[in-house]
C-alpha cells in the first residue's frame, strides 16, 4: 500500500464548527429566518484565521481539519447530527460559539451545555463574555456556570493566539479561561475576513461582504462596550491587504458591496489610504465597488473625508446621533456630538449624494413621552435624516452604564435574552409606567417610517440612492412594524421549530403548535401583502422619471388645467406630440397604453403617480360582493381592474428585482 495513502488514513479527523448563535423570541422559540440581512463579520474573521493556520501548517501533521460555518439566524444548528458524527471512531469536534452578543448569550449557553453533554469541546467568545469579565468585580454567575460545565471562555481578540487555541483544543489541553483582553493584536498583517459563498447564499444579498478595516474607538460613550473590549486606541489593517481582498472577492465571487464594520471609520488613521485604494479599483480597474460605514457626528469636518468617501463608492453612512437633546448626550458622555451642528452634518453628506442613517436611543434620563415626540419631529423635519434605527437604552454588560447601575444596586432585568435594545430592562426615569417606553419605541418607528415621511425622503433623495433607501424602507417596515423585531436582528420569512424552545418552557403539542403557526403565517401573509402594496404605491409616487416622461407629464398637466376633466385619447395624443417637439426621443404611447388612462388607472394630475383608482375599483367590487349584489358587478370593470393591477404590480416587481441585482 502507498505510504502516503496509509498516512492519510491515519490522520485524525477534526471538525471545527464556527457558530454564530441566535436568540429566543418572547415566546421562547429560537429566531431563525429563511433569508438573513446582516452577515456575521466574526465568522468571516475566524474563517480567515483558520485558513491561515492550515496554510502555514501550524496544526499537528496528523490532523485533517474540516471547517463548518453555521449562522443560526439563517439555519438550524444540527445538534444531533454533530453529536452522532463525533461519536464515530477517529473523529472529534470543536465547537466555537463566536461573536456572542448579550442577547444571544442565553441561547449560546444552552447550545454549549448541549454540546458538552455529548462530550464535545466547546469555546465561547464575543462581546458579552469579554465585556462582562472586563468590567465586573468578579466572574458573573452565568459565565461561572459555563466554566463549571467544562466550557472554555475566551476573553478578548484571538488573532495572535488562534493557532494556539486550536492546538490546545485538538490535544485536549484547553484551559478554562483565556484572557487576551490586554493583548490586543496588531491588525496590519492579519488576514482579511473571508467570504463564504455557501453561507452568503442564505442572505438576501449574496454579493455583500464585511470587513473590519480597524478596531477601537477614541471616545468614552457610557453605553458602549466596544471601548472596553477593543480599546480606545485605533488599530488598522493594511491598505494593500484590504485592496487585494476586495479585488479577489470581486473576480472570484462577484462580491462588490461591503459593510465596513469599524465602530468609527472616521477615526481610522488609514482612511485616506483606504479611500485612495478603492478609488483606484473603481476608476482604474473598473471594479464597481460600493460600501457603507459607521462614522461619528464630526466626520463632516474632516477635510476631504466626505468627497473621497463619495468617489470611493460610499453609498450610506451610519451615524451614532443617539439624541437631539444635549442633556442626554452629556449624561452619556457623548460630548463630541453637537446637536446644533446636526443639520450641517446631514446636509454635507446629502450634498455628496451619500445616504444618511442615524442611530437614535430612547430612554435617556431626560426623555419623556412628550420630549421624544417633539425630538422626533425635529429629526424628521429639521435635520431631515433619510433613515433611522431606534434603540431602547440598554445597559449592556461591558459598558460603564451597566457597571454603575450594578454597583448602585439598581434593578436590572436578569434575563439577558431581553438585552436586545427593544425591551425595557431597567428603570427609566421619564417612563414610570411599565411598557410606556416600549410603546413610544414602536411609535417612533411608525412615525418615521410613515408613508408621508418615506415619500418626502424619496422625493428629495439623489437618484443614485433611490433604490438603496427604498429597499431599506421595505426591510425596516417589515422587521420593526410587521415582525416586531429590531431590523438589525431580523431577516425575511421566519422559521419555527416545535422542539427548539427555550429550556424551562413546555414543548407544545403537534396540533397546538401547527394551529398557532398557521394563524401566524396567515396574519404574516396578510401584513406582507399590505406592506408590498404600500411600497408599490410609494414607488409610483416617487420613482425617478426620465426627461421624456417628465415632459409628457407636464404637458398633460397643462392640458388638464385648461379642460378640468379626464383627458380623451385625442388629447393624450396631442400632449405626446407637444412633448415630443421638445424631446425628439419621446415615443408616442401605444393605443394599449392610452386605454390605461381611459379605464381610470392614471387619472387627471395623478397620471403615472398612483394606484388609487385601482384600489377604489377593488373596494367597490368588494362592497358589492359583501352585500351579495353580484349582478351589480360589471364584468368589464372587474376584468380591466384585474388586468391593470397585474400590469402595475408586474412593473413594480420588475423594477425592484432589477434594482436588487445591481
Describe this structure in words.
The protein is globular. The model is unreliable at 582-607 (pLDDT under 50). With 662 residues, the chain is an alpha/beta fold.
What does the secondary structure layout of this molecule look like, with pairings?
Blueprint: H1 3-9, E1 12-20, E2 32-35, H2 41-55, E3 63-71, H3 79-87, E4 91-97, H4 105-117, E5 121-124, H5 127-135, H6 141-148, E6 152-155, H7 162-170, E7 177-179, H8 197-200, E8 208-211, E9 214-215, H9 226-229, E10 235-236, H10 239-253, E11 257-260, H11 271-283, E12 290-295, H12 305-312, E13 314-322, H13 326-331, H14 342-351, E14 355-362, H15 369-383, E15 387-392, H16 400-408, H17 436-448, H18 451-460, H19 466-483, E16 492-495, H20 510-542, H21 547-563, H22 569-582, H23 591-598, H24 612-626, H25 635-660
Parallel strand pairs: 1-3, 1-4, 4-5, 5-6, 6-7, 8-11, 11-12, 12-13, 13-14, 14-15
Antiparallel strand pairs: 2-16, 9-10
Shape: globular
Radius of gyration: 28 Å
Q: In what range is the share of β-strand residues?
A: 5-15%
- SS-based structural class? alpha/beta
Give the N-terminus to C-terminus distance in angstroms.
Answer: 54 Å
Biggest sheet, open or closed, and with what strands and sense?
Answer: 6 strands, parallel
Helical content (DSSP H or I, runs of 4+): 40-55%
**Mean pLDDT value:** 88
Amino acid at each position: 500500500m502507498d505510504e502516503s495513502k496509509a498516512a492519510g488514513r491515519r490522520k485524525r479527523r477534526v471538525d471545527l464548527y464556527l457558530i454564530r448563535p441566535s436568540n429566543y423570541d418572547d415566546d421562547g422559540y429560537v429566531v431563525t429566518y429563511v433569508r438573513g440581512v446582516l452577515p456575521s463579520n466574526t465568522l468571516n474573521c475566524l474563517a480567515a484565521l483558520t485558513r491561515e493556520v492550515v496554510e502555514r501548517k501550524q496544526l499537528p501533521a496528523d490532523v485533517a481539519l474540516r471547517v463548518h460555518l453555521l449562522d443560526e439566524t439563517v439555519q438550524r444548528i444540527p445538534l444531533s447530527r454533530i453529536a452522532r458524527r463525533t461519536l464515530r471512531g477517529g473523529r472529534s469536534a470543536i465547537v466555537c460559539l463566536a461573536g456572542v452578543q448579550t442577547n444571544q448569550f442565553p441561547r449560546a449557553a444552552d447550545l454549549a451545555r448541549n454540546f458538552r453533554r455529548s462530550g464535545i469541546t466547546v469555546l465561547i467568545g464575543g462581546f458579552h463574555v469579554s465585556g462582562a469579565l472586563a468590567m465586573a468585580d468578579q466572574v458573573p454567575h452565568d459565565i461561572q456556570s459555563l466554566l463549571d460545565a467544562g466550557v472554555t471562555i475566551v476573553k478578548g481578540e484571538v488573532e495572535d493566539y488562534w493557532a494556539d487555541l486550536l492546538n490546545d483544543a485538538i490535544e485536549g489541553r484547553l484551559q478554562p479561561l483565556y484572557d487576551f483582553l490586554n493583548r490586543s493584536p496588531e491588525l496590519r498583517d492579519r488576514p482579511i475576513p473571508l467570504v463564504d459563498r455557501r453561507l452568503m447564499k442564505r442572505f438576501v444579498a449574496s454579493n455583500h461582504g464585511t470587513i473590519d478595516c480597524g478596531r477601537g474607538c477614541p471616545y468614552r460613550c457610557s453605553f458602549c462596550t466596544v471601548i472596553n473590549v477593543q480599546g480606545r486606541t485605533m488599530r488598522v489593517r493594511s491598505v494593500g491587504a484590504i485592496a487585494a481582498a476586495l479585488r479577489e472577492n470581486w473576480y472570484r465571487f462577484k462580491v462588490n458591496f461591503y459593510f465596513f464594520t469599524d465602530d468609527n471609520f472616521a477615526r481610522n488613521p488609514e482612511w485616506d489610504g483606504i479611500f485612495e485604494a478603492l478609488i483606484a479599483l473603481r476608476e482604474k480597474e473598473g471594479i464597481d465597488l460600493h460600501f457603507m460605514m459607521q462614522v461619528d457626528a464630526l466626520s463632516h469636518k474632516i477635510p476631504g473625508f466626505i468627497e473621497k468617501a463619495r468617489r470611493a463608492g460610499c453609498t450610506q453612512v451610519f451615524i451614532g446621533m443617539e439624541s437631539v437633546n444635549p442633556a442626554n448626550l452629556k449624561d452619556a458622555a457623548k460630548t463630541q456630538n453637537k446637536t446644533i451642528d446636526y443639520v450641517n452634518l446631514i446636509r454635507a453628506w446629502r450634498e455628496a449624494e451619500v445616504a444618511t442613517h442615524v442611530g437614535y436611543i430612547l430612554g435617556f434620563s431626560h426623555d419623556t413621552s412628550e420630549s421624544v415626540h417633539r425630538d422626533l419631529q425635529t429629526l424628521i423635519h429639521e435635520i431631515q435624516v433619510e433613515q433611522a434605527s431606534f434603540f431602547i437604552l440598554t445597559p449592556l454588560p461591558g459598558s460603564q452604564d451597566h457597571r454603575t447601575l450594578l454597583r448602585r444596586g439598581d434593578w436590572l432585568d436578569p434575563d439577558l435574552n431581553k438585552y436586545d435594545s427593544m425591551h425595557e430592562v431597567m428603570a427609566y426615569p421619564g417612563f414610570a409606567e411599565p411598557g410606556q417606553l416600549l410603546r413610544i419605541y414602536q411609535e417612533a418607528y411608525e412615525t418615521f417610517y410613515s408613508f408621508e415621511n418615506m415619500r418626502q425622503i424619496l422625493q428629495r433623495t439623489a437618484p443614485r440612492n433611490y433604490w438603496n433607501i427604498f429597499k431599506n424602507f421595505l426591510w425596516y417596515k417589515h422587521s420593526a412594524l410587521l415582525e416586531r423585531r429590531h431590523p438589525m436582528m431580523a431577516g425575511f420569512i421566519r422559521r419555527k421549530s416545535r422542539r427548539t424552545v427555550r429550556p424551562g418552557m413546555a414543548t407544545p403539542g403537534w396540533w397546538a403548535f401547527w394551529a398557532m403557526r398557521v394563524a401566524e403565517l396567515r396574519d404574516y401573509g396578510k401584513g406582507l401583502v399590505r406592506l408590498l402594496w404600500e411600497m408599490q404605491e410609494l414607488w409610483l409616487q416617487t420613482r425617478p422619471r426620465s426627461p421624456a416622461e417628465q415632459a409628457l407629464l407636464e404637458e398633460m398637466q397643462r392640458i388638464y388645467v385648461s379642460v378640468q376633466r379626464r383627458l380623451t385619447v385625442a388629447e393624450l395624443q396631442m400632449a405626446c406630440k407637444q412633448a415630443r417637439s421638445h424631446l425628439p426621443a419621446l415615443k408616442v404611447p401605444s393605443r394599449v397604453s392610452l386605454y390605461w388612462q381611459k379605464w381610470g388607472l392614471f387619472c387627471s394630475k395623478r397620471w403615472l403617480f398612483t394606484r388609487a383608482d385601482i384600489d377604489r375599483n377593488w373596494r367597490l367590487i368588494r362592497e358589492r360582493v359583501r352585500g351579495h349584489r353580484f349582478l351589480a358587478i360589471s364584468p368589464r370593470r372587474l376584468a380591466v381592474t384585474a388586468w391593470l393591477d397585474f400590469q402595475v404590480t408586474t412593473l413594480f416587481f420588475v423594477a425592484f428585482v432589477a434594482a436588487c441585482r445591481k
